[in-house]
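User: I'm writing a short report section on ligand binding and want a predicted complex to refer to. Could you take this sequence and calcium ion and write out the structure as tokens? A short remark afterwards would be nice.
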Amino acid sequence: MSEKILVVEDEPSLQETLVYNLTRQGYTVDTAGDGLAAIETARRNHPDLIVLDIMLPKMDGFEVCRILRQEMRTPILMLTARDDEIDRVIGLEMGADDYLTKPFSMREFLARVKAQLRRVRMMREEIDGPGGANSLHFGNLVLDLTRRELLVDDKPVALKPKEFDLLHFLARHRGQVLSRDLILERVWGWEFSGGSRTVDVHVRWLREKIEADPAAPRRIVTVRGAGYRFEG
Ligand code: CA
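Assistant: Sure. The structure tokens for the complex follow:
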């Protein structure tokens, strides 16, 4: 069965180009031309990936992303017209998984789509695979992989989807130094450099939730010039 992609883009010529290229790669493609239609279609068709433009009629892409994130874990690849750090940070806070700034090449677009779908497949296999532990325990910290929930001192702590994925990845490689590039590739599915600040932002958010003193972290340690190491 081919993977299903929802393309949300109000500009007809770009929508057509994206659909044409995705279909040629063997994906099944649905489309929506505004924010409300995007939400309806995503709820009805359960896509494996959503390509989401930010500037849309009726409801913008940020709002669509925020609403869908409360309901589903589907990866979201955002399309933005501006190479704007603010857009990027807002989008990540809303739960977007990746970003492309217009104009982009079809080759890059298809590579990002593939990377996201592969990442989700790998995560799924890891969690559902035979013999896979359902939770990871580190002192007062429990990561419930089935419910995708973090407990600190037996109390649930709200994590954004990417915060959970990042913590899960770090925890699985406890004691190892992990470079920002490796983390980006495994957690975000990016095959391209240049987004390493994203990792730092998410580490900062995580530290605020799991460290006794976020200013002097003992669980997620920075290894100067190398990356991060999870100490447990
Ligand atoms: Ca648009």
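A remark for your report: The first helix runs from residue 12 to 24. Residues 5 and 231 are 38 Å apart (CA to CA).
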